[in-house]
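Below is a filled-in request sheet from our internal design queue. Each sheet records the structural input a requester submitted and the sequence that came back. We keep these sheets so that new team members can see what a complete request looks like end to end.

REQUESTER: design group, bay 2
PRIORITY: normal
MODE: inverse folding
CHAIN LENGTH: 93
BACKBONE (tokenized):
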């Protein structure tokens, strides 16, 4: 009787251990999938950050170019005003 009870108990526990192993495999598979999705998300974020940095650099380059052009124009205007002032001063003498 005890032997039979022991066998029945073993038979009852074997599927439970198999279910636990199957559950662990499902958990591992789910964890792997989540990790893959997280990595994809990180890559996407990095790509967007790089795109943003590139746009900022391009914009900064354009601003720098405009500043240089403005400085050139201001210098030309200052020189022209200086020349006009010299002419006016020379005409006045």
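RETURNED SEQUENCE:
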């Amino acid at each position: 009787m005890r032997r039979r009870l022991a066998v029945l108990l073993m038979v009852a526990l074997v599927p439970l251990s198999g279910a636990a192993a199957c559950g662990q495999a499902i958990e591992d598979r789910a964890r792997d999938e989540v990790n893959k999705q997280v990595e994809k998300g990180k890559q996407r974020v990095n790509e967007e950050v790089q795109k943003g940095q590139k746009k900022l650099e391009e914009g900064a380059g354009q601003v720098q170019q405009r500043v240089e052009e403005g400085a050139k124009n201001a210098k030309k205007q200052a020189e022209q005003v200086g020349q006009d002032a010299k002419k006016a001063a020379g005409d006045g003498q």
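SHEET NOTES:
- The radius of gyration is 40 Å.
- The CA atoms of residues 6 and 12 lie 10 Å apart.
FILED BY: M.R.
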